[in-house]
Amino acid sequence: SLKTLIPHTDGEKLSKAAILQQTAEYIFSLEQEKTRLLQQNTQLKRFIQEFSGSSPKRRRAEDKDEGIGSPDIWEDEKAEDLRREMIELRQQLDKERSVRMMLEEQVRSLEAHMYPEKLKVIAQQVQLQQQQEQVRLLHQEKLEREQQIRTQVSARMLLQAPPKLDPPHRDTLVV
């Protein structure tokens, strides 16, 4: 079923791994296209808002000379439009996240079904890396303890060392 969703695969013979790889690439390209379209949509909305600054609503608000402290209806409308746009974008983002999570879960389950031994190998590699990290940390702790002991022993030896006497002078004759 994934092969039918991937563009340009009519009549091609693809392995299951190739289908999964192309599916992942297709999902990535769709996400990039979606991001580009959302940015373009936002830019166009801003352009429309800027362009509509000379709209009849705006002119009527400007023609009313109510003084400096009058409320600007246009600003309220813009703020409300922005709030609506934000809500719509959040809803769209939530939908796309849920679809993406569902697709990722499907890909994982397909991979687990197709490559159960690969998952075992990966799990073993992760376990081995964790064990190696634990051994490295234990070794590092051991080295730090040894260094602390050396420092303590050196300090004790310095405290217990007999005082050094001045070397004999050359002027003095020793018989």
Question: What is the gist of this entry?
Answer:
Keywords: Coiled coil, DNA-binding, Nucleus, Transcription, Transcription regulation. The chain is mostly helical and 175 residues long. The protein has helices at residues 2-5, 16-51, 56-63, 73-114, 116-160.
Can you describe what's shown?
- This protein is mainly α.
- It has a domain at 1-53.
- The chain contains 5 helices and no strands.
- Helix 2 (16-51) runs antiparallel to helix 4 (73-114).
- The radius of gyration is 37 Å and the shape is flat.
- Residues 58-70 have low confidence and may be disordered.
- InterPro entries: bHLH_dom, HLH_DNA-bd_sf, Max-like/E-box_TFs.
- This is TFAP4 factor.
How is this fold's topology laid out?
Blueprint: H1 2-5, H2 16-51, H3 56-63, H4 73-114, H5 116-160
How large, in whole angstroms, is the Cα Rg? Answer: 37 Å
Q: From N to C, what is the helix and strand string?
A: HHHHH
Structural class category: mainly alpha
The tally of strands reads: 0
As residue ranges, the low-confidence spans are 58-70
Kindly, what is the distance between the CA atoms of the first and last residues, rounded to a whole number of angstroms?
A: 108 Å
Look at the structure and give the mean pLDDT: 78
**Large-scale geometry:** flat
Summed up, the helix count is 5
Question: What's the story with the biggest beta sheet?
Answer: none
SS strand fraction: under 5%
Task: Kindly state the percentage of residues in helix.
Answer: over 70%
